[in-house]
């Protein structure tokens, strides 16, 4: 990583773009604990915006192709400190291992649970895709610990909504070009262009932190595991949907 921190680079980037950012409920942000930040995701600007909002570097899990495309790779991994997901056969375990190690060092880790689709298909600012459950598994596994990792104490999952008030929509690269770098992604195997959403005015609304409890850790086994993971996923998704409606209207 370069001599400039991801937070400094994010501040510089947003200033250079002339983006006006408004932050609500910042008193809900945990300051001294490990935190897993969960957010909706439509733009390449989302990671810098979240870093500026929480005032600390965030290590984001990003799409596999972002670690393969020249120039993008240097910015995303080299400058912002993101860690790209592996190819599908290694993706889950690699994601858990990297993220838990970061949380053990009481760093902030960021996840966009909607997956690739909202980044490669244009959507309205108030729209969200169904959340994938990987982040909930990660949070509870990190708090539980195991043979390899010690338990992460005082771990919070922090939902944050990014609500665009004014934006410019353009195109970046043909989707099929990206299949050269990530042939495993079916969304790249079609005509069309990768959309590029540039925020002019944007609101970030911080939700209530969801602290991982000993009860959730105990329930994370057998048939109960699916229920506790589903509940945490739905709580985050519902909180962000509510905040998004508040910010967009």
From TrEMBL:
Domain of life (superkingdom): Bacteria
Transmembrane among keywords: no
GO MF term set: 1-acylglycerol-3-phosphate O-acyltransferase activity
Coiled coil: none
SUPFAM superfamilies: Glycerol-3-phosphate (1)-acyltransferase (SSF69593)
GO biological process, any: phosphatidic acid biosynthetic process
Alphabetic keyword roster: Acyltransferase, Transferase
Ranges for domain Phospholipid/glycerol acyltransferase: 35-165
Identification of the protein by name: 1-acyl-sn-glycerol-3-phosphate acyltransferase
């Amino acid at each position: 990583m370069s001599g400039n921190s991801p937070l400094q680079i994010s501040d510089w980037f947003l200033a250079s773009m002339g983006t006006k950012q408004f932050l609500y409920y910042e008193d809900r942000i945990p300051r001294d604990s490990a935190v897993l930040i969960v957010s909706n995701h439509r733009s390449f600007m989302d990671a810098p915006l979240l870093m500026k909002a929480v005032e600390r570097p965030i290590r984001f899990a990003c799409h596999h192709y972002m670690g393969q495309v020249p120039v993008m790779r240097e910015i995303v991994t080299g400058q912002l400190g993101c860690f790209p997901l592996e190819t599908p056969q290694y993706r889950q375990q690699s994601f858990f291992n990297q993220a838990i190690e970061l949380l053990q060092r009481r760093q902030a880790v960021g996840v966009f649970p909607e997956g690739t689709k909202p980044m490669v298909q244009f959507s309205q600012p108030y729209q969200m895709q169904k959340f994938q459950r990987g982040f909930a598994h990660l949070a509870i596994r990190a708090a539980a610990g195991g043979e390899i990792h010690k338990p992460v104490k005082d771990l919070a999952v922090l939902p944050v909504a990014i609500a665009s008030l004014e934006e410019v929509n353009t195109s970046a690269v043909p989707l099929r070009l990206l299949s050269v770098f990530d042939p495993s992604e079916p969304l790249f195997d079609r005509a069309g262009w990768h959309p590029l959403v540039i925020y002019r005015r944007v609101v970030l609304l911080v939700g209530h932190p969801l602290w991982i409890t000993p009860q959730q850790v105990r329930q994370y086994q057998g048939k109960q595991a699916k229920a506790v993971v589903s509940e945490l996923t739905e709580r985050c998704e519902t909180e962000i949907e509510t905040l998004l409606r508040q910010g967009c209207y």
